[in-house]
Amino acid sequence: MEALIVGAERAFAERGFHGASIGYICQCAGRTTGAFYSNYDSKLKLFLDVFRRHSDRTADYIDERIAQVDTERDLAPQLARIFADIFNSAHLDARWVFIHLEFRLMALRDREAAVALVEHEQWFSRRIGTMLDALFERCGHRPALPGTELAGLLGAMTRGVKLDRAIYAMGGVEDPLSSDQVAGALEGLFRSVV
User: Fold this and answer.
1) What's the pTM value of the predicted model, to 2 decimals?
2) Closest of 101, 82, 86, 85 to residue 163, by C-alpha
3) Cα dihedral sign for 75, 81, 82, 83?
4) Where is the HTH tetR-type domain (predicted)?
5) pLDDT tens, 25-58?
6) Do 147 and 132 form a contact (C-beta atoms < 8 A)?
7) What is the pLDDT of residues 139-170, one digit of tens each?
8) How many CB atoms lie within 10 A of CB 168?
């Protein structure tokens, strides 16, 4: 199944959800169509697994970084750096931008995709929010926003910044937001919340 997910990630990034046929996905995965049908009953379910896999990697990365926060120091710059590094890193590369945008466009046109995306984003915000709430509790902070709401806001910001950066790169134009500017803006956000 892992090979199908890896192959599907490549196929969806290259051709989009509708353009990536099951045959092409299997070709990218080095598997037969029988392997697809023995694991999935729809292309959307495979697409969701691709999406979840990437989200799991991102959440695991955030969890590792939050575990390293020094609770004796000011939280705002530390949290700002963690999330700025996500905005700035190759961890969320061009494939992520294509796949994420593809999912959002599908959700605007297809109720089943919309329900799946909303459920996924709520799950992801709760996962990151739980990490943030635990950190704030360890530090004795009562944030102005619950962790889940803060995570939802950070998710929306990440999507916007990554999409703009991909467009600027495609257009051969330097990104107007430097890594330091992003970190500074995030630090201001965390200061206002914490």
Assistant:
1) 0.86
2) 101
3) positive
4) 1-58
5) 999 999 999 999 999 999 999 999 998 988 898 8
6) yes
7) 998 899 999 999 999 999 988 888 888 888 88
8) 14
